[in-house]
Amino acid sequence: MTANRMKEQVVALVLAWNEEASLPALLAELARDCPDWTIVVVSDGSTDGTARRAREGGAVVIELPFNSGVAAAEQTGLLWAASAGAKVVVRLDGDGQHPPSEARKVVDGLLASGADVAVGSRFLHEGGYRSTRLRRGGIRWLTFLLGVLGGLRITDPTSGLRAFGPRALALLADVYPDEYPEPESNLLMGRAGLRLVEVPVTMRARGGGHSSLGGWTAIYYPIKVTFALFVEALRRPAR
Amino acid sequence: MPSHEVRVQLAGAILALAAIAVVVELVRRRRLTEWQSITWLTAAVVAGAFAAHRRIQFVLADFVGIYYPPVLILGAFVFGGLVILLLQSVALTRLEARNRKLAQSVALLRERLDRVESDGRTDARSGEDA
To answer: What domains are there in chain A, each with its CATH number?
Structure first.
């Protein structure tokens, strides 16, 4: 799909790893609530019927040959969107946590503010799925770090529901952190001089599949991300 | 029965030669590159030299101020092992990054191919209809 064949130059980027159970409902909701968007599903080495479901749902399907992680999957989608001439890319999780109606709010927030990035935050108002108490504690720690290291005010630094404008798209298609990339990429963009805004959103609990943050990763994640943020702060800002 | 020193020298030489033989065989079978083998061959030769000429460890230990010479050998090999591990980690990280780029390229090219083939089929059908 080339730029002139894209619907409204807004790409809804859905990341999916073995999400055949939840994907059809999400794609149907996207088609209903956001008919003017181009839907791209990145299947991250799925071994179930994710790609087939995505095609049946009318999405552009990009299939990574093996599971490469959320960062590689997201960057693949961003590379596709950049080459297709997208003006805005909004990322949603394939498990149905991010309602398309909320994704639209994030895109509207991006366009209305003129910022480079809009982050959907669960913590700017009450209600919806707000994660466990332990994770919320970790999120507050990351909020603190982003403030200290990058001067950013992000209440929901782990939110995957984000919309990127052209400058952010160009930057992240070129440089993207690995593993759990949201907090680190927020810092990367902030230090590169991009403007980030937050938009209040309501998220849902997962519709299927399983979280990538279970077992030992629940311990590894905060250590890795904290270290990665400090190291990012030591790097020369990306351009 | 040979003396204690001769037995140690013999064991050291056999182990060093066995290590060299294993490394050369791995290179021959293309399981190890020549570049990677240099480190291991060097380690085997150094280990063999220490075993064959035990005076080396006494001279070096005295030079760096280590009271018990075998600690010098052990310490040197632990340090060398850690350096090798670090270099391997760097190489692994580089390979991971390349692997990621390759996987992304494959995925994007596959999508493009699907699209081109789909467009081709559509064009062919349009031609038949006309």
So the answer is: 3-234 (3.90.550.10)
